[in-house]
Structures are given as structure tokens and as C-alpha cells.
Design goal:
- Helix content is 29%, strand content 32%.
- The longest helix has 15 residues.
- It contains eight helices and 17 strands.
- The strands form five sheets. It has a five-stranded parallel β-sheet.
- A hairpin with a 2-residue loop joins strand 4 and strand 5.
- The chain has 260 residues and is α/β, with parallel strands linked by helices.
Length: 260
């Protein structure tokens, strides 16, 4: 069985691979593609897979950009962190989906639906997502006219997969090539992707750039004071021992961000 995974979060991709192994569908390990551009290249140079597990937001944009450019003729199981407003569109079009974070039991249910869908494709060359369906899903995603930002991270920790709510992240910090989300207790959670990639997934009204290696959540900013060399010292609510500083180059933009 040929499977393709479109997923930009490394922990989520690992979980999908683990569940596929439990279900007896791997090895070999399916390819994991993290961006719309690379997914398009892959689909143009490989045979059509039997099944695609597809996240909604990839590193370089919305996955529906891919489905507008390339006609996929195999079933798709969407793995999404978006809330209920998007799911009626999936139900209405007979598309399987998994709402993150999902369990192995839910994963098995989606595979069962895939098996039912597979038998319904009498024309294997016909696109699974017609232009009308793609437009409907894209419209549902843009409902309310507001950009959709990440609400939680699934983080691989020593004792399993931990779900970290974005609202609990005090700041984000890049350290020796690894990006960490840090909560008010000082616990560091490793994230997949660079700081810039993580920044694009967060609501800019809530997270502001301090310098080349740090973002801060406005909900945890208690006080901002002048610092030397045209920088600012940012003190966090509930963390008297933590003081973050802006870079001189970033200070003007950070001041504008503070003012909303």
C-alpha cells in the first residue's frame, strides 16, 4: 500500500507513522512531505499513492493550494487542528478527517472509512477533490475572514506525546538550532521547525518578535523597561527571574507591536 503523509509537524508525522505501523501498513515507512511546493514536486514525479494523510497548513501555505494545482485521484484523510467550523464541509463531501490530537482508535475509524471510500471510486482517474469541493473547503477555512493560527502544539516528550496549548506558552526561544516553547513554569518543549516557521503559525497579535532568537506572548508581559543601547527589558508575569531583551534593531517594531 503506497501512502503519502503531508505534515509539517515532526511529532505529528511520527505519531501517524507509529499508528500506521500498529495497523500493519508500514514498513516501509511512507514519505513525509512538509510543504506545498515539495508535495507538488513529489506528486509530479511519483505514481499516485493509494492514500494521503494531509494536514491543512503546511510550511509554505494552505494545502488546498496543492489540490487546486494537482488532481489527486486517491482518497485523502485530513489531519487537522482546526475546530468544528471546518468539519461540516468534510462530512458533506464524504472525506475522512482526524481532529488533532487524535487517538489510535480514531485513526482506525478513519482507515475504516477509507476502505469504504476506496470501493466508491469507480473512475480511478477522476479527481477526489473536484474544483467545487476545493472551493467549499477553502471557503470554510476562511470563514469569518480571519487567518487561522495554531491553537496547540503536539510535543514529543520523554513519556509520550504532550499537547501544549498556545495560550500557555510564555515565550518561544531558538537555542543551538532547536526551537523551544517555554511555559510560565519554565518548562521547555521542543518544537519542529525554525523560529521563523513557528512564528508564521502564531497569531501576531499575541506573539511579538524580541530579537533573532525569541518571541514573547503579550499575555505574559508584565512590564517593559528601557535597557542600554536602545533596547528594552521585558519582564514576565509570574517569572521574576526571567528578563527577556529586545535587540536594538527590533526595538522600534516591538514598540509598535506593544501599542497594538
Amino acid at each position: 500500500m503506497r501512502i503519502l503523509i503531508l505534515e509539517d509537524e515532526e511529532p505529528a508525522a511520527r505519531q501517524t507513522l507509529q499508528f500506521l505501523t500498529q495497523a500493519g501498513l508500514a514498513p516501509p515507512a511512507p514519505p513525509v512531505v512538509r510543504s506545498v511546493g515539495k508535495a507538488l514536486d513529489w506528486l509530479q514525479t511519483h505514481p499516485m499513492p493509494d492514500l494521503i494523510f494531509s494536514d491543512i497548513e503546511l510550511l509554505d501555505g494552505n494545502v488546498f493550494l496543492l489540490y487546486e494545482r494537482f488532481q489527486v485521484t486517491c482518497p485523502i484523510i485530513f489531519t487537522t487542528a482546526y475546530d468544528q467550523f471546518l468539519l461540516p464541509a468534510f462530512r458533506g463531501n464524504g472525506i475522512a478527517y482526524l481532529l488533532k490530537p487524535f487517538t489510535y482508535e480514531q485513526f482506525q475509524e478513519a482507515l475504516t472509512k477509507y476502505q469504504r471510500l476506496q470501493g466508491s471510486f469507480a473512475q480511478p482517474t477522476a479527481p477526489v477533490l473536484s474544483p467545487e469541493v476545493v472551493r467549499e473547503l477553502s471557503h470554510a477555512l476562511r470563514q469569518g475572514g480571519q487567518p487561522q493560527y495554531r491553537q496547540r502544539f503536539s510535543v514529543r516528550m520523554r513519556n509520550g506525546l504532550y499537547i501544549l496549548q498556545v495560550e500557555d506558552v510564555a515565550y518561544v526561544q531558538a537555542d543551538e538550532g532547536v526551537t523551544f516553547a517555554v511555559d510560565v513554569a519554565g518548562t521547555r518543549y521542543p518544537l519542529s521547525g525554525t523560529l521563523t516557521e513557528v512564528e508564521r503559525q502564531l497569531n501576531p497579535a499575541h506573539f511579538g518578535r524580541l530579537n533573532r532568537s525569541e518571541l514573547v506572548n503579550i499575555g505574559f508581559v508584565e512590564k517593559v523597561e528601557p535597557y542600554f543601547n536602545n533596547r528594552l527589558a521585558v519582564k514576565l508575569r509570574g517569572k521574576a527571574d526571567v528578563v527577556l531583551t529586545t535587540s536594538a534593531a527590533q526595538t522600534p517594531e516591538f514598540r509598535r507591536w506593544l501599542e497594538g
